[in-house]
Design a protein that fits this description.
The complex is a heterodimer of chains A (about 600) and B (about 280).
Chain A: H1 8-27, H2 31-64, H3 71-97, H4 103-107, H5 112-146, H6 152-183, H7 185-189, H8 191-207, H9 211-224, H10 226-234, H11 245-274, H12 317-322, H13 328-343, H14 353-368, H15 373-392, H16 403-407, H17 413-441, H18 447-474, E1 480-484, E2 487-490, H19 494-515, H20 518-531, H21 536-539, H22 543-553, H23 558-586
Antiparallel strand pairs in A: 1-2
Helix pairs in contact in A: 1-5, 2-5, 3-6, 3-9, 3-10, 5-6, 5-11, 6-10, 6-11, 8-14, 10-11, 13-17, 14-15, 15-17, 15-18, 15-19, 17-18, 17-23, 18-19, 18-23, 19-23, 20-22
Chain B: H1 2-10, E1 22-31, E2 34-44, E3 49-53, H2 60-67, E4 75-80, E5 83-84, H3 88-91, E6 95-98, H4 110-120, H5 125-138, H6 154-166, E7 172-176, H7 184-199, E8 203-207, H8 211-217, E9 220-225, E10 228-233, H9 235-239, H10 250-257, H11 260-265, E11 271-272
Parallel strand pairs in B: 3-8, 3-9, 6-7, 7-8, 10-11
Antiparallel strand pairs in B: 1-2, 1-4, 4-5, 9-10
Helix pairs in contact in B: 4-5
Classes of the chains: A mainly alpha (about 600), B alpha/beta (about 280).
Chain lengths: ~600, ~280
């Protein structure tokens, strides 16, 4: 006989096992990853401390009657909490908790409703685990301030009710999103691109400081809804607060009704999702990265052959652009890289890291209509950095299981390197030049300086690709690392990242200081301060930097000279790096333990 | 025993839902315009070992997923021990399923995994402990039972997955490539276990590419090609070549019936061998 409600024994067992798995998976993370997690956790400490302090001040103010009861503010606060929890739960559902690991084992053992309830209980324990201490701290601080110890209980109950409501809402919405992607071949086809756009949109909203205005309508609705009434329940024990008992009851009552309804809805959605027929992403879009090439266009291109690419009217875009310019194997390697990047764009997300550092600056500066010189320069160097890092920084490791085949394909090291460079510079150079010139126009830079910066960016892009490949073959990485909660990929090693970044900056220094000599002044000042007290010969050395800055500032052709020196350096380093790549590729042997 | 089972299979032409452990009637699964399984009729009695063969992409896994309630048929019906596969809660207690990729959590030890699964199957703790102990011994996994599954070889995972499928003593065991990745000794243990299960009246639905295993164990063989059952019968009868009358191995039969030419010439009815007049 079919049960309507989940089996509590199964639910508890599933939750316990899931928690045990999560704990062990966390334990298996490297020290680096744990340190990053701990560092990320620090960002929450300050806001929680501020809210705790605020809760104490509020309690005290209410007790002494020195402040007016800020009901609207508190209702907005609980609305934000619900939205935050729902967002976190929803994104976790889309990424991990909406999918069952090894589903055949569990779905042939227990009803899906037991699994849904088990996973939800797991999420509850995780969220409560994180929220309990801050909630208690805030509640106790308020109770101390208000001198009403009994206030702790309703505040904690209201907070947990908020978390449960947000979690149930987020889980349900997450399942709706997953179901849409599971059922729609269109969404399945563009899944990666949509994910990337959402990610970019998220950061755009954050960086443009428009999160508040974007969420204001939703918060307004929630404030007026029974969710906002939970604040009435939470402050039932507080002094000098005219709590509306009806609203307090209504708030808690709504959560008690809404949560089972949402869980029931989740159960229905989960059944449709977990037992859904998989959709096939609809056809390829032939955007020039497809590997389906007309037979007529591949003549004379046997494996390892170096024949030049020829094209026909039906050839993909990349073949029409590069046909006759580069050899087939070179184009094939580049096409393979582009195709893989298109299918799994998140894998290359690290290439945008330097942009995140200045993300908060870009929005306000663009709004003000004045872009500082340093930002244009930063973007030119960033573009070059990303160009090299995206495709060439781990050329051997990125091949994965295909590496033995690639090594024995007959492709020369030179061809392989050319393919890597083509993969990076084709998108990298135009993007870097357009971004540099675009921002340069909005900056106080002259036309000559903008042109010199664009040239600097282009030179660095080419140099960066070869440099990255050289460093990548010296420090290859074959192990996968986690890029999202449920996705792993092979990424370049940290050492390769560091050396590549230092190397690229070293190449770029002449061009950079020639464009922005103030860098030298800052370094000179810093050096003087650090070395003061030492013998004059040493202590005065940083002054050379300041003097050099003066010379550059008074030399009109300095930007062109600096860019030229960088170009020479780039060529020299590229020759050395190219030799290294060719030797490494052609002489590479696979270790048994790899 | 084997002969009796063959007779039981052979004497029935129309599936009767409650007299067979596994029965399907015109079972069909379509994905859009692609037909993965077409009009499949099976009638497998209790205690039979049914060797389910077919080339890659023939529809074997789709059939198994329908029988284990993991996907819903587009049309047709199927019953496991008399229970319709549309009633998942009624069916799942009767089945033990080992997919091609054993459903195990890497973060757990084998013992923890099996205790967990036993709990989900509502087995009591003492029963769980007893079954785990005896099955771990049987599959020579006791020494590694408290190591994480992430450290296991493919064969060890396969053994743990098989124990998990058997531990609640199901009426029907569905095994997808159970000997894949196993060393000869472990493979023999699996074969012996399958034979014992059948002797104990458990029905084994065995999908594999290792034809000697089917030849040795199966009481009945069905060959699927392009989603359709193209040949069915006891292995001995199938081995008497239908068209040429020559003796052949099961591999010869498999290669003979799973070609486009043979498929094009066939009628919709499977080539049934070994049926009485």
């Amino acid at each position: 006989m079919s049960r309507i409600f989940p089996s509590l024994t199964h639910v508890r067992l599933i939750a316990r096992t899931e928690l045990r798995r999560k704990r062990r998976a966390l334990g298996e993370r490297s020290g680096w990853q744990l340190a990053i997690l701990a560092f990320a956790g620090l960002f929450f400490v300050l806001p929680i401390a501020a809210v705790t302090f605020g809760a104490h001040a509020l309690g005290e103010g209410l007790r002494t009657g020195s402040i007016d009861f800020p009901l609207d503010l508190l209702r907005a606060g609980v609305s934000i909490v619900v939205l935050f929890v729902a967002f976190m739960a929803g994104s976790r559902t889309v990424q991990t908790s909406g999918t069952i690991d090894r589903s055949a084992g569990i779905l042939t053992a227990v009803p899906h409703r037991d699994v849904v309830a088990g996973l939800l209980l797991t999420e509850c324990v995780l969220f409560f685990g994180i929220a309990t201490l801050p909630t208690l701290a805030i509640a106790v601080a308020f109770a101390i301030g208000a001198s009403t110890p009994v206030s702790v209980v309703p505040i904690v109950v209201a907070a947990f009710a908020l978390i449960i409501a947000g979690l149930a809402l987020g889980y349900t919405v997450g399942l709706v999103v997953k179901l849409a992607f599971a059922r729609s071949s269109f969404l399945a086809r563009y899944k990666s691109i949509i994910g990337m756009l959402v990610f970019v949109a998220y950061f755009a909203v954050i960086y443009s400081n428009s999160l508040n205005s974007a969420l204001a309508p939703v918060i307004g609705v929630l404030e007026a809804s029974p969710i906002g009434w939970l604040i009435d329940f939470g402050l039932m024990g507080a002094p000098s607060v005219g709590v509306d008992i009806l609203r307090a009851t209504g708030g808690i009552g709504t959560v008690m009704i809404a949560v089972p309804v949402l869980v029931g809805l989740s159960t229905v959605l989960a059944e449709r999702l977990w037992y859904a027929d998989p959709v096939q992403p609809s056809g390829d879009d032939g955007d020039g990265t497809s590997t389906n090439v007309s037979k007529s266009s591949v003549r004379g291109t046997s494996a390892g052959g170096e024949g030049t690419a020829t094209t026909s009217k039906t050839s993909p875009l990349s073949e029409r652009v590069f046909g006759g310019v580069v050899s087939w194997p070179v184009l094939r390697i580049a096409q393979k890289n582009w195709l893989r990047a298109r299918r799994a764009p998140l894998k290359l997300w690290y290439a945008a890291y330097p942009l995140l550092l200045v993300g908060f600056q870009i929005g306000p500066l663009l709004n003000a209509g004045q872009v500082p010189k340093w930002l244009v320069l930063y973007i030119a160097v960033c573009g070059a950095w990303a160009t090299g890092a995206a495709f060439a920084l781990n050329p051997l490791g990125d091949e994965g299981a295909v590496l033995p085949l690639t090594l024995t394909s007959g492709v020369s090291g030179q061809t392989y390197l050319a393919g890597m460079v083509l993969s990076g510079v084709t998108p990298g150079v135009p993007i870097t030049v357009v971004a540099t010139v675009g921002l340069g126009v909005l900056s106080p830079l002259s036309a000559v300086e903008i042109a010199a910066l664009a040239a600097l960016g282009t030179i660095l892009c080419a140099g960066a690709s070869v440099l990255a490949a050289g460093i990548g073959t010296l420090y290859p990485k074959f192990e996968e690392s986690r890029i999202t909660r449920n996705r792993k990929a092979v990424r370049p090693s940290i050492v390769a990242f560091l050396i590549y970044t230092i190397g690229l900056l070293a190449i770029g220094i002449p061009g950079v200081v020639a464009q922005v000599p103030v860098v030298l002044r800052v370094l000179g000042g810093l050096g003087t301060a650090l070395l003061s007290g030492l013998p004059d010969v040493i202590a005065q050395a940083p002054r050379l930097l300041t003097d050099l800055a003066g010379v550059i500032e008074t030399t009109p052709s300095a930007p062109v000279i600096g860019t030229g020196v960088t170009a020479l350096l780039a060529v020299g380093v590229a020759v050395l790096a190219a030799r290294r790549v060719i030797q490494a590729f052609e002489g590479y042997t696979i270790n048994p333990g790899m | 025993m084997k002969r009796t089972q063959q007779a039981m299979i052979s004497n029935t032409t129309q599936p009767m839902n409650d007299s067979f452990s596994i029965s399907t009637d015109a079972l069909t699964k379509q994905y859009g315009s692609t037909t993965a399984v077409n009009d499949l009729n099976l009638a497998i009695p209790s205690g039979a070992i049914y060797g389910f063969l077919g080339p890659n992409g023939a529809g074997k896994t789709t059939t198994i997923r329908m029988l284990t309630t993991l996907i819903t048929p587009t049309s047709g019906t199927a019953h496991i021990v008399g229970e319709s596969i549309t009633d998942r809660q009624a069916v799942v207690p009767h089945i033990g399923y080992l997919p091609e990729e054993p459903p195990l959590y890497d973060e757990l030890t084998a013992r923890e995994q099996l205790e967990y699964h036993g709990g989900l199957r509502d087995m009591n703790p003492s029963e769980i402990e007893e079954r785990i102990g005896s099955l771990l011994d049987r599959f020579d996994l006791t020494a590694d039972a408290d190591n994480r599954i992430s450290t296991y070889s493919k064969g060890m995972k396969q053994k743990a997955g098989l124990i998990q499928a058997l531990m609640h003593q199901p009426n029907v065991v569905v095994l997808d490539e159970p000997t894949s990745g196993l060393d000869p000794r472990a493979a023999r243990t699996v074969r012996e276990t399958i034979a014992e299960l059948a002797a104990g009246d458990t029905t084994v639905f065995l999908s594999t590419h290792i034809l000697p295993v089917v030849e040795e164990l199966a009481t009945e063989v069905g060959i699927l090609y392009e989603g359709e059952l193209v040949a069915e019968g006891p292995p001995d009868a199938l081995k008497e070549r239908m068209e040429t009358g020559e003796e052949g191995t099961l591999e010869d039969i498999f290669l003979d019936v799973t070609t486009d030419e043979a498929y094009g010439e066939r009628t919709t009815e499977p080539e049934r061998t070994g049926q009485p007049e």
